[in-house]
Amino acid sequence: FEAKKLPEQVTFYEPSMANGREVQLVLENELYKALENNELFLQYQPQLKLNNTDLISMEALVRWKHPEKGLIPPSDFIPIAEESGLIVPIGKWVLETACRHTKELQDALGQPVRVAVNLSLGQLFHENFVEVVRSILKETDLSPESLQLEITESMTMDTQFLMPILQDLKKLGVTIALDDFGKGYSSLAYLKDLPIDCLKIDRDFVKNMKDDEHEPLVDLIISMAKHLKLNVVAEGVETIEQFNYLLNRECDAIQGYLISKPSSFEKVLHNCKNKVNSLCYKTQSEYYGY
Ligand code: C2E
Ligand code: MG
Ligand code: MG
Ligand code: MG
Prior knowledge:
- By secondary structure, this protein is α/β, with parallel strands linked by helices.
- 45% of the residues lie in helices and 19% in strands.
- The longest helix has 23 residues, at 87-109.
- Bound molecules: ligand C2E and magnesium ion (MG) (3 copies).
- Residues 24-276 form the EAL domain.
């Protein structure tokens, strides 16, 4: 096989692309230092059960406070971390920090709270991932059922690779959620076989829930999840209408700006200690309309 040398192929070295790559390399180098310089931090967003306002779970979301560029969202730096392999130390830092914070919160409250941590494929590829999780749980003294690991649909493409790792993780006692569900990829055939505990309905579905097109899909996802005995969490719930719609369905929990934006650990701890409606900004009566 001989590749045809088309003139277009030379356009690879276009200045704009070189610039893009340069920007990428600068960010990558800065991200490397960010970890050492403590520029990364976590925010937490609560997940609430639909039938009561107790904080049952929260999702840890990583942020980067760049000394000059300001706050950089994960959508801008996680891909760079994934490409460069930095996701391995960053992911480990996220796991450690989230588990340590959650243990501290549990001790302060005297009741269990679960934390959900997002994973990237590159972390799972790293040979000792299961051991890393095991040792972090041990070090932080967090019970495994208090940790939920979030994987995305796109990661489930390679089931042969993923299955044994997920099964080993499950043996530790942690739970697994499938994030951004509905965006594509998952075939029903292996959704049934994946050792997961929870489906998180993607924000886009929740946003468009009341469309003629989307409404039957949300119902379908929920009933499918129930059929597979999975918990269902709706992401990105922003309005009371969306909330009420889900209240009438068998959705187990919700997450979104309606309840709370992601906030610092200090704020979560403070709100929980002072029983500021288990972390909600709104009071229970505002929230349920009574
Ligand atoms: P995700 O895991 O699906 O997280 C939910 C995202 O939706 C978060 O964005 C959250 O702030 C946002 N969100 C929550 N409620 C609402 C709402 O009501 N309306 C709207 N418009 N947005 C809402 P964020 O924090 O920017 O994170 C984006 C993505 O970055 C995450 O999506 C996740 O895929 C990734 N990510 C975040 N932290 C980590 C991490 O520690 N490791 C890895 N591998 N990925 C992470
Ligand atoms: Mg997530
Ligand atoms: Mg999501
Ligand atoms: Mg996402």
